[in-house]
Amino acid sequence: MLLIDTTVQPSGIQGLGCFANEPIARGRRIWVFERKIDLIIRESEVFTLPKPIQRSLFNSCYVAMVRRRRCLIVCGDNARFMNHSDNPNTVDNVACRDIEIGEEVTCDYTSYDLDTSAKLSGKYATATTSALQPSEPAPGSQQSLASVRSGISRAEGTLGIS
Fold first, then answer.
1. Most exposed residue of 89, 114, 117, 138, measured as fewest CB within 10 angstroms of its CB?
2. pLDDT in tens, 97-132
3. Nearest to 112, CA basis, from 90, 134, 95, 131
4. Cβ atoms within 10 A of the Cβ of 22, count?
5. β-strand partners of 107
């Protein structure tokens, strides 16, 4: 759940982006996992859905290891429109510098999304239904939940992920 006021607008980076409606000071937390708004879906469950829904989820969600299983984290608000930047203005859900009103709020997908290369290559935006296949995490790709998104560990038990 975003902790800042934002709007979705056309982005110079890619498609639509998440833009600040307020000044955001360096060091301010901008996002936390909130089970009332955000979801955790096991990747194996995603593959039971119709192919267009799979493509949409893989394109707009991020993939993380939750209790040794690949899961999609579905952001239920404007956070799903945050674009990747090699020079992001947020790191680990905290503003790493002051962000101006009207500025796009960005993050570095490589710091938390196991499917970064697929997203940045446009695989899911252009994928045929046969291109969406379950995959095993790359060796060493398991990241700590703390570095992925704060608050997920609290949600795991609530959502019954074991």
1. 138
2. 999 999 999 999 988 888 888 777 766 555 443 444
3. 90
4. 11
5. 84
Residue indicated by tokens 């993939």: 63
- The 3-class SS string of the chain reads CECCCEEEEECCCCCEEEEECCCECCCCECECCCCCCCEEEEHHHHCCCCHHHHHHHHHHCEEEEECCEEEEEECCCHHHHCEECCCCCEECCEECCCECCCCECEECHHHCCCCHHHHHHCHHHHCCHHHCCCCCCCCCCCCCHHHHCCCHHHHHHHHCCC
- With tokens 């994928």, the residue in question is 127
pTM of the full structure? 0.74
Rounded to the nearest 5°, which phi and psi values hold at 146? Answer: -65, -40
Q: Which residues contact 144 (CB under 8 A, 6 or more apart)?
A: none
What burial class does residue 133 get, using C-beta atoms within 10 Å of its C-beta: 0-12 exposed, 13-18 middle, 19+ buried?
Answer: exposed
**Tokens, residue 139:** 């060796």
Asked if 88 and 108 count as a contact pair (C-beta separation under 8 A), the reply is yes
The answer to whether 18 and 105 are in contact (CB under 8 A) is yes
